[in-house]
Amino acid sequence: MQQQQHRQPELVEGSLPVFVFPTELVFYADEQTSHKQVLTLYNPYEFALKFKVLCTAPNKYIVVDATGAVKPQCCVDIVIRHRDVRACHYGVYDKFRLQVSEQSQRKALGHKEVTATLRPSASHEPPSPRSQDEEQRRLKEQFAVSEFFEQTAASGPTESRPVAGGPSLLTVLLGLVCMAALMLPTLGEQEFTVPVYLHLSINKKLVAAYVLGLLTMVILRT
């Protein structure tokens, strides 16, 4: 009877943090192996999640699978293939949106956007950090309001798998990422030892602090 009283609190639509790695996909035209990328969606929560992959340019990519489910404290690998490798697409930033919801509900509890771009060659990549113009362009594309479309899924099962080392390892890993984010310089600070693209805005640091607090509660409950 006590277990029935301990129910998952009602979640507000769009308020659930979504954990995806990596947050940027880079395809290289001259490297066939880079035309296939893998996104890993983590579920550190105690309830199962449904996911759906949307894209601003679905005709350029193949996703296996575009919809699926992630068991509690597990993760799934989502394979994305670039199928329209042409010079006219070089430098164009597309976006994927991973939208999650509870299996028993239809409303989206949260989403995470991942940028994707096609470049001519990895050998032409500059060894130094991105130029200021390129970084501003990437940020503009990232935060621009985009129209997302259903992504056609290719055949092939996507099964959730336990995170190596159990949920505690995932929680610690995400906590370290959040702490590292809080230790980075704030955007606008005169810090020359850290590249400009690693300077975070106040909003991003607030999100990191919020997620770190959430993970702390998860650790205390385990």
From TrEMBL:
Residues 111-136 are annotated as: Disordered. Keywords: Endoplasmic reticulum, Golgi apparatus, Membrane, Transmembrane, Transmembrane helix. InterPro entries: Ig-like_fold, MOSPD1/3, MSP_dom, PapD-like_sf. GO terms for cellular component: endoplasmic reticulum membrane; Golgi membrane. The keyword Signal does not apply. It comes from the Eukaryota. It is found in: Endoplasmic reticulum membrane; Golgi apparatus membrane. It is a multi-pass membrane protein. Residues 18-110 form the MSP domain. The chain crosses the membrane at residues 169-188, 200-220. Its main location: endoplasmic reticulum. Plays a role in differentiation and/or proliferation of mesenchymal stem cells. Proposed to be involved in epithelial-to-mesenchymal transition (EMT). However, another study suggests that it is not required for EMT or stem cell self-renewal and acts during later stages of differentiation. This is Motile sperm domain-containing protein 1.
